[in-house]
């Protein structure tokens, strides 16, 4: 099946710094990528939908200026957590779909962010 | 707003037992997916159901989509320790965009 990677797998940063998380589709072109956040023992919550070459669409309650998303190519989307705070500590997961528009979402392995 | 409620939230059983996980909503979904997620990893797709009343089997797992496409169930026969994990249902509302709404999750632990 299709492979989606994330980098880094885990990151620890100081409060107030920014952290960039990369999501790559390794063997297919991803028109759309999705970013989710998952707190311990909870489900996945969609943060934003990212389409290549256009601005991301954010879900209600997600601050677009805090969670910057860039989808500059068909194989790469990045999520930057700006001025991170301890409450931003979470498991961030991306997924990607192919170019047909009605395809399965393929999920990345997730990135564990810990803000001290 | 969590549109998909799963029950039970937690389940701890012995190896060999059977179990059923439910995924309920007041909304209609064009398709519904079931995932299993292990700690520190992304969710892995188990099955997609698209037709009301559809039943799909995957070895010891049986998935059913409700007639009205508002609910689904996952039944595991003769559970094994390897079935341990977080089970998530996720619905797609249709209208394009592939957006998924995830259920509240069911944490399953199968002990020897």
Q: What does this protein structure show overall?
A:
The complex is a heterodimer of chains A (116) and B (112). Chain A contains no helices and 11 strands. Chain A has strands at residues 4-7, 10-13, 19-25, 32-38, 45-51, 57-58, 67-73, 76-81, 90-97, 106-107, 111-115. In chain A, strand 7 and strand 8 (76-81) form a beta hairpin. In chain B, 0% of the residues lie in helices and 53% in strands. Chain B is built from no helices and 11 strands. Chain B starts with a strand and ends with a strand. In chain B, strands 2, 4, 5, 9, 10 and 11 form a 6-stranded mixed beta sheet that branches. Chain B has a 5-stranded antiparallel beta sheet with strand order 1-3-8-7-6, with no helix packed on it. Chain B has 112 residues and is mainly β. The chains are: A mainly beta (116), B mainly beta (112). Chains A and B meet through strand 4, strand 5 and strand 9 of A and strand 5 and strand 10 of B.
Question: Overall pLDDT of chain B, averaged?
Answer: 93
Report, as a whole number of angstroms, the end-to-end distance of chain B: 37 Å
Largest sheet of chain A: 7 strands, mixed
The H-and-E topology of chain B, N to C, reads as EEEEEEEEEEE
Oligomeric form of this entry?
heterodimer
Q: Into which percentage range does the β-strand content of chain A fall?
A: over 45%
* Helicity of chain A, as a percent range: under 10%
Task: Give the low-pLDDT segments of chain A.
Answer: none
Characterize the overall form of chain B. Answer: globular
Question: What would the average pLDDT of chain A be, to the nearest integer?
Answer: 92
Number of strands of chain A: 11
- Taking Cα atoms only, what radius of gyration of chain A do you get, to the nearest Å? 13 Å
Q: pLDDT under 50 segments of chain B (min length 5)?
A: none
> How many DSSP E strands of chain B?
11
């Amino acid at each position: 099946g299709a492979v989606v990677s994330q980098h880094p797998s885990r990151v620890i940063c100081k409060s107030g710094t920014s952290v960039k998380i990369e999501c790559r589709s390794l063997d297919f072109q991803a028109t759309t990528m999705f970013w989710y956040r998952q707190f311990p023992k909870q489900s996945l919550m969609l943060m934003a939908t990212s389409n290549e070459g256009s601005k991301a669409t954010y879900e209600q309650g997600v601050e677009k200026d805090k969670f910057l998303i860039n989808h500059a190519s068909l194989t790469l989307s990045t999520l930057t957590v700006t001025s991170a705070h301890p409450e931003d500590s979470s498991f961030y997961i991306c997924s990607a779909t192919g170019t047909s528009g009605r395809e399965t979402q393929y999920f990345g392995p997730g990135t564990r962010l810990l803000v001290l | 707003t969590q549109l998909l409620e799963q029950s039970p939230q937690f389940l701890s059983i012995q190896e060999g037992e059977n179990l059923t996980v439910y995924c309920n909503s007041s909304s209609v979904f064009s398709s519904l997916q079931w995932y299993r997620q292990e700690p520190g990893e992304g969710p892995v797709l188990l099955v997609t159901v698209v037709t009301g009343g559809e039943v799909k089997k995957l070895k010891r797992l049986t998935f059913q989509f409700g007639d009205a496409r508002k609910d689904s169930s996952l039944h595991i026969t003769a559970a094994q320790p390897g079935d341990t994990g977080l089970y998530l249902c996720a619905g797609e509302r249709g209208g394009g965009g592939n957006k998924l709404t995830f259920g509240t999750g069911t944490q399953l632990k199968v002990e020897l």
